[in-house]
Structure formats: C-alpha cells, structure tokens
Amino acid sequence: MARKIVILGAGESGVGSAVLAKSKAFDVFVSDFGEIDERYKKVLMDYQIPFEEKQHSEDIILSADEIIKSPGIPEKAPIISKLKEHNIPIVSEIEFAGRYSTAKMICITGSNGKTTTTLLLYHLLKRAGVNVGLAGNVGSSLAWQVAEKDFTHYVVELSSFQLDGMYDFKADIAILMNITPDHLDRYEYKMENYISSKFRIIQNLTVSDAFIFCCDDEIIQQQMTERSTPFQLYPFSVKQKLNNGGWLDNETLKIHYNEYNFSMDKKDLSLPGIHNIYNSLASGIAGSVLQIRKETIRESLSDFQGVNHRLEKVVKVRGIQFINDSKATNINSTWYALESMEEPVVWIVGGVDKGNDYTVLFDLVDEKVKGIVCLGIDNKKIHDAFDGKVANIVDANSMKEAVTKAYNIANKDGIVLLSPACASFDLFKNYEDRGNQFKEEVRNL
C-alpha cells in the first residue's frame, strides 16, 4: 500500500509538494485551514489530488505517514501540536524535494539580504549558461521543479521557518548573510532559538562543501568559534582584509579562492549601499567556487537590476524622490536603507512589530530623518522611541494618508522612504501589497 503524505497549506510550496508526491506514487491529501487560491485549486484538480479548504480534518491528517508543512504555519498551531502528540514526522517542502534531486544546491539564508543575494546569484548563473532553477522563498516551488523540470543547479532562498523543517537535506554551497533579531515571536522571544534555526543551513555539509559567511557579523563570528566546521570556509567582510574569501580593499572588491583572484571597483556595482557590497561579495564568492568566468561575474554584478520592494526608486514628484523598501520587515533592513540615503528623509514606518528595538536607529534617524509617518494600527512603540527626536512625527491609517502626509512634510526636496521595519499584516495582505499600494498612491499625487 502506498505511503500516505498529507500536505498542510496549499500555496506555492504545498501544491508543489503535492505534485511531486503524486509523481512519486504516494497517497496524497492537501489540507488548508484558509481558502485556496483558484489557480492552485485548478492544479490540484488537474493532477487529481484530493484536497480540503477552510478546515483541517483531523482523522485524515492524523492517519498520515508523513506531513509536509507550509513554512507559514506556526509550530504552536493546534493541528501541529496534535501531530507531535502522535509522533508523526513533519518536514518542509525543501526537505521532501531534496530526496528526489541530485542537483547542486546553493542555499542562502540570513535576516537580511538573502533575496537580493539569491536573485543576484541566479542572474549570474543564468548569464554563465548554467542549467539553474530559482526556488525556496523566491521563485517557484523546489518540489514542483524537481517533479517537472529538474535542473542541474538550484539557487534556494531559505527562511528560518523552512530550515526548521529540514533534517537530511544538504546544501553544496551554504551562504549565511547575517543574523539580527527577527521573527522572535515564532522563537519564544529567545534569540538563541533563532540563531540555531539559521545555522541549520550548515547541517550535513561535508569536507568538499563550501560555507560562505559574513565574518563582520558578531553573532556569526561567535558561533564559528563554538561550532565544528569540517568543510570549506569562505568568509566575506567590508572591515578587514582576508586571506581567503571576499573583502573590500579601499574602493575595490576582492575575492581570493584557492588560486583564483578576482577584483572589481566598488563604483561598478549596479546596486548602491554597503549592504549590497555584502550581497555582491557573497554572490561573487559562490560564482568563484562554481568556477564561473571572472568576466561573467563582473558583468553580472554590474548590470543586475535589483529586487522589487527593496530600495526600489518609484518616481520623483516635484523634486521629491519616492523609494519603496516595503520588503524591509525588520530593524536591520531599515538600518541599511537609512544608511544608504544621502538626502533628508521622510520615513514611513510601522505595521506588526516583531519585537523591534528602535534604539539601534537613533543615530541614523538623528542624522538623516526630518519627518516620520507612522503607518499602522498600533504606533505607540514608534512614538515612544522617536517623539521629541524628530520635529515632525504623524500617524496614518492608510497608504493614501501616509503618502500624502509624507509628501507635505518633504515639501519639494529630499526623499520619502517607505521602510516599515515591521510585518504588513495589520493593514495589508503582505509586503508586496504594501509596496504596490505605495507605488500606486505616489503615482496618484
């Protein structure tokens, strides 16, 4: 009798898992506690995969041999607690997909910069002619691609939630960008739990595999002194010269990998800001490990177009530059955004706070911010942090109101920056919805 797999969540990840499980002749059932998007329903029906929505039928779910869980479902959800009581294994889509692919896996995680680095590296490998897929937190479901296309290489962005459900999966190249407080509401507000989750990226690495990591990050530095690392280490830094890995030498990016040496002028990078030097170094080292031609790496780092909703210039209105950084859902992302601004800023901030400590932004706000628009249902924490530190601090309950108030404060010069430092779920569907509404309201001015 076929083993029974139940998939919880019918988004891109869940439906992709269902397609792969069906192709491998499992008995598959998909359950979503919410409403399933029509396009995913159609796929499930086309593949003749039974599913349910707006409920979890416990009798069916608890009869599974294994569960594949969407990364969006928290560990504290009642159905997950029940499954644990019954000792039914729960894995992520990435763990499941990895069982059926022999492709090289280049996996990227970190609190910030992982999407840009993932897309930059994908761009680099495509340009080099590598047969590469884009998966994980961006791109299409890894499981779906393994079922229907299977590439020779994948660039996979991994969130901590995806890593939590991974056990035997192995990266060939693991990249860790940084670790700063984020999603602490999912980790019992314990930083050590979140750090452990991020470091799952190196589990199962072998002596021939590569670990690319930011050695400027104090948490990563500390962890590296405490962990066994029987694999190839390639650190990157903007603060110190390294013997191996990548670093910034005055105005020049340098990469040294075995006998391979690469250099590139900082001003030739397509993406501005110190955070993008980190992203470019990580991508360049991975390209070097994969033996991509230096010229291809240089071209890729100089013509990459960037990521939607990440420091995305929208338009100028009466001399005011509007910038959409809606993807900045934590303090560190917003720190990098403010750090890269060179004109006075009106900052739109707020949403669902994930345990933010705004004190780390005080110096940048003092130096660069002339007004704050608080966009959220509960703005008390932002007011507590910045009242008296910024001349203009106002509230808004909609994107239209936020854009109008920011425009009036900016008054013919400088920058209006949407960089919320918070999740979006109080007023918007997700950060994309928030960013798209921002762009629409700016264009309506």
UniProtKB/TrEMBL annotation:
Query: Could you say which residues bind ATP here?
Result: 110-116
List the transmembrane segments: none
Known EC number(s)?
6.3.2.9
Instruction: Specify the pathway.
Output: Cell wall biogenesis; peptidoglycan biosynthesis
Q: Does the keyword Cytoplasm apply?
A: yes
InterPro entries noted in UniProt = Mur-like_cat_sf, Mur_ligase_C, Mur_ligase_C_dom_sf, Mur_ligase_cen, MurD
Q: Which GO terms describe its molecular function?
A: ATP binding; UDP-N-acetylmuramoylalanine-D-glutamate ligase activity
Q: Which GO terms describe its biological process?
A: cell division; cell wall organization; peptidoglycan biosynthetic process; regulation of cell shape
What subcellular locations does the record give? Cytoplasm
What are the residue boundaries of the Mur ligase central domain, all occurrences included? 108-285
| Mur ligase C-terminal domain ranges (all copies) | 309-422
Q: Which UniProt keywords apply?
A: ATP-binding, Cell cycle, Cell division, Cell shape, Cell wall biogenesis/degradation, Cytoplasm, Ligase, Nucleotide-binding, Peptidoglycan synthesis
Top-level division of the source organism's lineage: Bacteria
GO CC terms, sorted: cytoplasm
Q: Which Pfam families match?
A: Mur_ligase_C, Mur_ligase_M, MurD-like_N
The family note in this entry says:
Belongs to the MurCDEF family.
Q: What name does the UniProt record give this protein? A: UDP-N-acetylmuramoylalanine--D-glutamate ligase
Organism equals: Ancylomarina longa
> What is the primary gene name for this protein?
murD
